[in-house]
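Fold this sequence, please.
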Amino acid sequence: MAKKQRIPHKFLPWIDARKKFRLSNAHIQMARELGLSPKRFGSYADTKDQPWKVPLPQFIENQYEKQFGKERPDVVLSIEEIAAAHVAKRAQRKADKLKAASESEPTEAPPEQP
């Protein structure tokens, strides 16, 4: 069995919101690109007390089309794929930083000062 992929904490609220509000990966990606907060989704979708509000998926689609002039993103990735790419990018940066640090180490010891 493969080891379960670690998901950074900043992506967990998006996964919870996707499950709680039954949103698709495209809706989550659109909401992230719009700069919406997953913690505020409850107020965007409050249809019990405010029946005139449109459903959350439709609200996200309307806002996305208004701001970007298209119905959906060109490439839709799941939040898990975005998190995996984020982890891989950080690991690569860390490896590059270690490599640069080991290459720039002086081979001789600096002269001692009295």
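Residues 73 and 106 are 49 Å apart (CA to CA). DSSP finds five helices and no strands in the chain.
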